[in-house]
Fold these 2 entries.
Entry 1:
Amino acid sequence: MAPSCAVRLFLLLLLFAAQAFGQDPILEKVEPDTGAVGDPIVLTGQNFGTEAGSVTFKGKVATTTQWTDTSIIAVVPSGAGSGEVVVTVGDKASKGKAFVLATPEFDQSAFEVLTGVGAVLSGLESTSYKVDSDNNALSQTNVGRKTVELLLGGGFILPWHAGGGWIERSFCGTPEEIAAAKKAAKTKKPICKEGGDPAYKNYRPWETFLSIRFAPASDQTINGFVIGGGYRITKYFSVLVGYSLTPVDEPTHGFRVTASQTVAANPTISPYNNFNASDLLQNRPGAFDGFPLFLYNASGVTTTKIFPTSPVVTHNHSGIYFGVGIPLNLSALFKPSSK
C-alpha cells in the first residue's frame, strides 16, 4: 500500500512541476509560409496553451484572431519583413519558422515624400526684376511674393508620440485590439474607431521637412525652398510651418541711388516723370518696373548708361511660410496590380 501511495505522490509532483514550469511551445507549420501585410496565417503545433501569448513576424508583434493549444491564426503585422515566425508563451519561445513577405508595404515610419501647397505669409514684400534688352529697361518678373506655391520635398517623422493621442484614439486598432484595450482600461466605452487603420497605432504626429517651392504661374518657376516642421493630422494630411528663403533679383544699391538722383534732378523729363524718387531709393514693390537703363534728356534717350555695371543683384529674402502637405506613397504608385 505504501509504495502505491508513494507512486501516486510522485506522479502528482510530476504533474505539478509540468503545470508550474510548463513546456516549450513547438511551432510545427506555418500556412501559408508567404503572404502580405494583413493576411491571416495559420500556425499549428503543440503546447501553445489556452491563454493567448504573442506571435512575432521577424520581431514585429502580430494580432491573433484565434488561439488554442495546437492552433493559432495570426495577421501579418505592418512593418513585418521576411524572416522567422516565433510563438511565445509566458517566458518560453518556440523555434522560428521561415516566412516570406510577398509584397513589402511602404514603410512610412521615418521618411515620406511630401507634396503640397503653401505661401509666404510673413516677410518682406518685394519685386524681382530682369533686364529687358529689347527696351533697355528693367522689367518686373514677380510682383507680390505672397502667392500660393507648390511644394515638393521630404518629411522626416519624429519619434515623439505626444500630441497624437486624440488621433490614435479616433482611428487605431482592429476589433480584437480595441476589445483588449477596453478590458485593460476596465471600460465599455469606445476608445478607438471600430475597425480603424492600424497605421494609427502608436501614432507619431510630428515631423520636420525640407521642400523646394514652385510657382508655375510666375516668371521665376523655382521660388526657393522652405525648411520647418509639421503636424500630421492624418497619415494623408499635414499642417506645415517653416522658414523660407526666396532668391530675388533686385536693383543694386548703387543703381537705386543713381536712379533716385536722376529722377529728382529731372522731374519734368519723360519717362522720369512717371517714377517717384523716394520709392526708387527705398525699392518699394514695383517701383523700378520699366525704368530705363540709359539716360534721357529733353531731346530723348542718349547712349550713356545710368549705371556702369549690372543694375540687379540676387538677394535671398527670408520669411515665415505656412502650408499643407500631402504624403506621396511612391511604392503604392508603382506597385503592379494584383488583378
Entry 2:
Amino acid sequence: MSSHHPDHQQLHFSVLARTAVGLLLVAILALGVWLAIFWHYPAQTETISPSTLAAKRPAAQAALRLDPQAHPMEVAAPAPNVNPSSPAGVFPSAQQDYGATRTCAQNPKKEIDQELVTKISQDFPGLKQLLESDSANLDSKLVRPLLQSLLDAARNASPDRKPTLLLAADSVAGRLALPHVNPPNPELKSQLEGFAAEGLTFRWSELGGDWFYSGDLLRKVQQEYASTEEGGDAALLLLLNGWDTGPCCGRGSDQFRAVIQHGEEVLASRPQSPHRTEILFVLAQSYETWWSLSQSPEKNREEGDPAPGPYREGAAAAREKAIAYYGEIVGSAAQSVEANCSQKPLQSLKDSQDTKQRRFYCYCD
C-alpha cells in the first residue's frame, strides 16, 4: 500500500496544478475583458460628446437656423445661423446628406463675417475674436460693450460706412446671451428696453427657453442700403435663413416660398451680384424642396412631412427651375463649393428621383 502512496500524491499534485493553471487562465481572460471594457468606455464617452451627437442628428435644413449673425450655416450647418446652429426642437423630416448641405450653406456667412473683420476690426478691438469664435452665444458682459460701441459709431457714421457698422452690430447682437428668465426680472427688463430703443428686439422662445434676437439690423441694412455691398450681404444672409429671423418657424413652415420670391427679386435686381452663385444655390434648393414635398407618400410619411397634395401644383416647373439653377452653378462656377454640392441633386432631379430635400421647409417639434 505504501508503495503506491508517492504515485497518488504525484497524481493529486498534478490535478491541483492543472486546476490552478486553469483558474489562472480564466482570471487572466476575465482581466483582459475588464480592461478592454474599461478602456473602450471612456474612449466612447469622450468621442461621442453631446455636441457630436447633435451634429450626427440631422439639423433643421429649413433655414439652417443660422441666425443672421451667430447662426452661420456650417448649419447648419449647420448651423446656426447659420450661425453655427439650429434652435432646439427643430428637426428635419427626411433623410439626406445634411452634413454636406450645412457646409455649403455656412460658407457665405463666414466669408461675410471675415469681410467685416477686415474692414473695421482695427477700430473695434474684440470684433475679430468674437466673430471668429465657435460659440454661438457669449456672455453679455463681453458682448454688450462691443455691441454698444458699434451702435454708437453707426449713429453718426457717414452713409458709406454706416451699413458696415450696422451689419457688424447685427452679427454681434446674434451672439449675445441673455439670462434665461421669463418674464424678465427688473434688470433684464431694463436691458431689453435699452435694446429696443436702439432698434433691436429680443423675443422669448418657449421652444428654446431663451431670448432670440430678431435680426432687426439685418433687415434694416437689406431694406435701406439695398444697393450697397452690405445690402447684398444682408439679402444673402436673409435668404440663407429662409427670410425668417424669428424663433423657430415664426413665418410658417413653407420658407422655401419666401426664399423663391425674394431670391428671384434679388437675382433680377442684381444679376451681376458677387453672391450670384450662392443665391442660385439657395434658389435651387428651394425649388428642389418644393418638388420633393410633392413626392411624399400619402401615408406612412416621415415625421414632420406634410401631405403632398398642396405642393403638387407648380411642382413640375419647380423641378425644372432647380435643374436649371444647379446646372448653371456647375457650368459657371465649377470649382466652387456650391458646384460640388450641386452635382448629386442635379443628377437625381434629371432622373426624377426624389432627393428628400427639406432645406427651407421648417418643422418644429
